[in-house]
Design brief:
Distance between the termini: 67 Å
Number of helices: 7
Shape: elongated
Radius of gyration: 26 Å
Helix content: 25-40%
Largest sheet: 8 strands, antiparallel
Structural class: alpha+beta
Number of strands: 23
Oligomer: single chain
Strand content: 25-35%
Length: 420
């Protein structure tokens, strides 16, 4: 009986936690700004914060012009509200970022400082899961002054100080750089607007300068890494003659239709498969060992049904496609599958059920795949996150191929980085 009572009390405690209401403000809002989405020549920075961030964000973008593309996500959501993590994930699905400067602490008066502290790990976990290569900067929350009496600190500042203490302590344990915005503005009431919360033009410019310097301290390393890496990339997009690429039927014994379904637009630097001339690979003719392949792709919208779109990117293909690994390009998600040699026999594998997350965008929108092939391991990153991996691929050298399977698909930015 005692054991049953203990179980009952534990279940009641779990239910009480689960039933805790989400605290929201009377007006909730989300402001997202992502410039230069199709440019990849500079590092990319994301500012996460609130209306204070929105105030200095535009100037940060100006300060870092020519050095980085600066986006922002400003929101009224607070740590403790699960919707904040949903909003962050939504933005991080859109692009890959090299530096993320984040702050949260002004909103969420209905959450205690203990609840705020307890929610910090979830935010950082989301950032690192969705942007595993990004360098993080945690900014402290700025103070609040009394409306029209800016020389006096508002009582809310005491709570902000406690939240900042928790954020700085957690950032230190996680080896995250801290940008102390509270420290640089706290002794300058003249920087505030009359409402006591926001900043005037001078104050926003000062914050923007400080934020820009913090980002640049990490951006230098990120840019050097990016420059060195970019120098090793090879553009393998074919010209209009498709020289260096060969059409290969699927299955290998099937014939090819005489008309080509592959067309290069040299002006737009795109390769389009119309999907109207049978099932086949367009094979890159250079045999490869270890490499990284980046490619952007999108389907031409034809249907509301996700299953009506299908294609793929082949890696480690044998010369005529008897053995292969494919990164699926479909609206139901990106994952690896193929036919591998196991104990001398050809064996099919399919990792669709092991896919970590469906990050593929709707038809008509560009997706970025990064495929790393090293030794017997292949990993697929979709729009900035690794979602599928396979090990023990027997074929250690092979070919790249783009699949035609009855659906119109366009490719661009075919970039290859050999690793051997």
């Amino acid at each position: 009986m005692r054991n049953l009572l203990s179980v009952f009390m534990a279940l009641m405690a779990v239910a009480a936690v689960a039933a805790k209401p989400v605290v929201r403000e009377n007006i909730e809002w989300l402001d997202v700004w992502l410039p230069n989405t199709n440019d990849h020549d500079l590092s990319r920075v994301l500012l996460i914060g609130d209306s204070i961030t929105r105030g200095y964000g535009k100037q940060v973008e100006v300060n870092l012009r020519g050095k980085a593309y600066v986006g922002r996500m400003a929101t009224s959501k607070s740590l403790g509200d699960p919707a904040l993590l949903d909003e962050v994930a939504l933005v991080l699905k859109e692009q890959s970022f090299d530096v993320i400067h984040f702050n949260n602490g002004m909103h969420g008066d209905g959450y205690t400082e203990e609840e705020y502290s307890a929610a910090l790990p979830d935010l950082v976990t989301t950032l690192r899961r969705m942007a595993p290569n990004a360098k993080l900067i945690c900014a402290t929350t700025t103070d609040v002054r009394k409306r029209d009496h800016l020389e006096e600190t508002d009582a809310k500042t005491k709570r902000i100080v406690e939240r900042n203490r928790a954020a700085v302590e957690f950032a230190g344990k996680q080896s995250i750089l801290v940008d102390d915005l509270f420290g640089v503005e706290h002794d300058h009431p003249e920087y505030h607007a009359n409402d006591g919360v926001h900043f005037n033009e001078q104050g926003s410019a000062m914050l923007a300068q400080h934020v820009s310097r913090s980002i640049e301290s990490l951006l230098g390393t990120a840019m050097l890494q990016k420059t060195a890496a970019d120098a090793a990339w090879i553009d393998i997009l074919p010209d209009e003659s498709l020289k260096g690429w060969t059409r290969v039927p699927i299955p290998p014994v099937a014939g090819l239709k005489p008309e080509s379904q592959w067309h290069v637009d040299s002006a737009q630097k795109t390769l389009t498969c119309t999907g109207n001339a049978g099932h086949e690979w367009l094979r890159y003719d250079k045999e490869l060992g270890d490499f990284v392949l980046r490619v952007e792709w999108r389907f031409t919208p034809k249907s509301e049904e996700p299953k009506r779109y299908n294609s793929g990117i082949g890696i480690r293909l044998s010369k005529y496609g008897e053995l292969w690994v494919q990164a699926q390009t479909g609206l139901t998600g990106g994952y690896l599958f193929g036919e591998n040699l196991v104990d001398g026999a050809v064996q099919r594998f399919n990792l669709s059920k092991e896919m970590k997350e469906n990050r593929v965008k709707p038809a008509g929108e560009w997706n970025l795949y990064e495929i790393r092939v090293q030794g017997g391991k292949v990993s697929l990153s979709v729009n900035g996150m690794v979602v599928s991996e396979v090990d023990q691929i027997a074929l250690r050298r092979g070919y790249i191929g783009l699949e035609a399977e009855g659906y119109e698909i366009t490719f661009r930015n075919l970039q290859l980085q050999p690793l051997d």
